[in-house]
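Bug #77: duplicate submission created two jobs. Keeping one. Sequence:
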Amino acid sequence: MKKGYLIPIFLILPAIVYLLLFIGYPIIGTFQLAFSNPKGWFENFRYIFFSKDFQNAFLNTLLLGMVVIPIQFVFAVGLALLVNKKRKGYKTLLYIIAAPLALSDITAALISYSIFAPNGYLNKILLSLNWIERPIYFFGYWFKSREFLVIVLTEVWRATPLMFVILLAGLQSINQEYLEAADVFGFSTWKKFVKITLPLLKPSIVSALLIRTLFAFQIFGVVWLLAGRDITVLAGETYYWYVLQNNRNIASTYALVIALLTFIVGWFYIGTIRSKHLEEGVE
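Kept job's structure:
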């Protein structure tokens, strides 16, 4: 074997070793723990599927995704269109919008708590303006709807920039000649958006929705810090069983369920994109 063939192998070897040690081995261990139970291989799955905690966590995870993702998408599209116009001050606006990308979910949750806590900034401002007589409580078992609202606001603020960046990149890749031709033919702004911009932006839209949906099933830090187990989610239950209950088997089962759901969602998105692309190619 020539030395030229060995160079690519040596270059990729560190990545392969990393994947095997830090991803492959934990995955194998997760499967072993999830299917380990004296009563049978699938006993852990049967336990969580019939558990009310799992059902609530699954529904809460879906509900958060169904509420947060559409709001983020609308904001991301609007902001991307605004920044893409490159009017005066657009660079400053770009930095402001993208700033939350530098924050972890823990940091974002702590910032939200400092705003909405009983002695937080929001209550202090409202009290100083004499708009309320006593602090408004946003956290606690009896205020689940308010907790949910704060979580949604935090997630929208924290994760919208991710979709925004993807969509902005898609907008900037659109050939301006198409839009100039549309102006010649007298297209209105709305018609240009619907007939030209939106179809050409479709790959970026699907990519942004795919990534954000996959992350939605893994939401943990914001929910756990702001609501604890008042509002349970799948990733939160994984942490609860592994750390607080010290039950690695049930925690691994939850982890596999999350992995299965993300795989199904990814397969659905990719399958939908591929089928539509083939249909358009045939036409």
